[in-house]
Design goal:
It contains 13 helices and 10 strands. It starts with 8 loop residues before the first helix and ends with a strand. With 325 residues, it is an alpha/beta fold. It has helices spanning 9-13, 59-62, 88-101, 116-126, 151-168, 170-186, 196-204, 208-217, 219-232, 250-255, 258-276, 294-297, 299-312, and strands spanning 19-23, 26-33, 42-45, 68-71, 108-113, 131-137, 240-245, 282-287, 314-316, 322-324. β3, α2 and β4 form a beta-alpha-beta unit. It has an 8-stranded mixed sheet with strand order 1-2-4-3-5-6-7-8, sandwiched between helices. Strands 9-10 form a two-stranded antiparallel ribbon.
Length: 325
């Protein structure tokens, strides 16, 4: 039997949906599913090292209900790398510029998974006039974060390591396998429908590895920025849904003793409860049948949270009065 040739990187690129949009000086990969103009746009932003396909199981559940925007941060997915390391303010500003570039500059629902929870909370505090509601999907939370030492050295080191992986092709070779391992370790076997060919396409282009390493090394720096912002800007009184995962994958059960897991779950519950209390209209939704990658395990819960926010939105009438949608 004749072996089937593997598709080239260019061929894989044809499988990638969406388009490139100039935002903040670099080309961003954006996938937009059009919806009614009278509904707020919904912007999805992925966790550390993630890409547009993290939301593939969620989007069909919201089709036709709103305009759905998925984008890759610089250096992730198919977006062009940025010249400067990420900061909290820059990531919040990036979302605003994206809405402007897409001609969707009106109050939006922001959905952030994991690390991106920092970004969407910052957006809500910095741009309350553009915030219709927020959904935090097992959002990162570090109430005692502090900037880490040797900022420049850390960024330089991980860029160098990531650059070697990209130039040598090692990143493109081991990237998909590492991604599958991460998903296996943070899900309970939900319907995660990301197309493996699209996952290979991103890693074949050498994009995610470098940026993921930089995002990881700056995690506590960005978290500390958010603590400062909380002292300066209030969270707007908009609908807020907080989805918290409490399921344990087979890998977690294998490596984490039950007592330690119980302590971690209790601490996580308290932190997620505090996130829900950011808004007087916040609600905590506990998911015991999902791992950290809720968009894969429970895409229906994410879709329901978005719809709950849209239904709870304040609508302003012509006379200046307001009523719930």
């Amino acid at each position: 039997m004749r072996a089937v040739a593997k598709p080239t990187s260019r061929e894989l690129r044809r499988l990638v949906p969406g388009r490139m949009v100039q935002v903040a000086g670099s080309a961003h990969h954006v996938v937009v599913d059009e919806g009614p103009d009278d509904a707020p746009p919904v912007v999805f932003t992925s966790g550390l090292g993630g890409a547009w396909y993290d939301w593939d199981a969620v989007v069909p559940l919201l089709a036709g209900r709103a305009t759905l925007v998925r984008f890759d941060r610089p250096g992730l997915g198919w977006s062009q790398p940025a010249a400067v390391p990420p900061t909290l303010a820059a990531e919040a500003g990036r979302i605003r510029e994206l809405l402007r570039a897409l001609e969707l500059e009106r109050p939006a629902v922001l959905v952030g998974h994991s690390l991106a929870g920092f970004h969407v909370e910052a957006f809500a505090r910095m741009f309350p006039e553009l915030t219709a509601g927020v959904v935090l999907v097992d959002g990162s939370t570090e109430p005692e974060a502090a900037p880490q030492p040797a900022y420049s050295q850390r960024v330089r080191r991980w860029r160098l390591i990531g650059g070697v992986g990209r130039a040598s092709g090692i990143g493109g070779f081991i990237g998909p396998a590492a991604w599958r391992l991460i998903i296996a370790g943070t899900t309970l076997g939900g319907p995660g429908v990301a197309d493996p060919r699209q996952v290979r396409a991103t890693f074949a282009a050498g994009r995610p590895g470098v940026t993921a390493m930089v995002e990881n090394t700056l995690y506590y720096d960005v978290a500390a920025e958010l603590l400062e912002l909380r002292c300066e800007r209030d969270f707007p009184p908009v609908p807020l849904q907080v989805l918290a995962a409490f399921g344990r994958s087979r890998i977690e059960r294998a490596i984490m003793p039950r007592a330690l897991a119980a302590q971690f779950a209790d601490r996580w519950w308290r932190r997620q409860r505090d996130l829900a209390e950011l808004s007087p209209r916040g609600e905590l939704v506990e998911l015991k049948d999902s791992g950290h990658y809720i968009p894969f395990d429970r895409p229906d819960a994410v879709a329901d949270a978005v719809l709950n926010v849209i239904e709870a939105m304040d609508i302003e009438h012509g006379d200046g009065s307001r009523a719930r949608r």
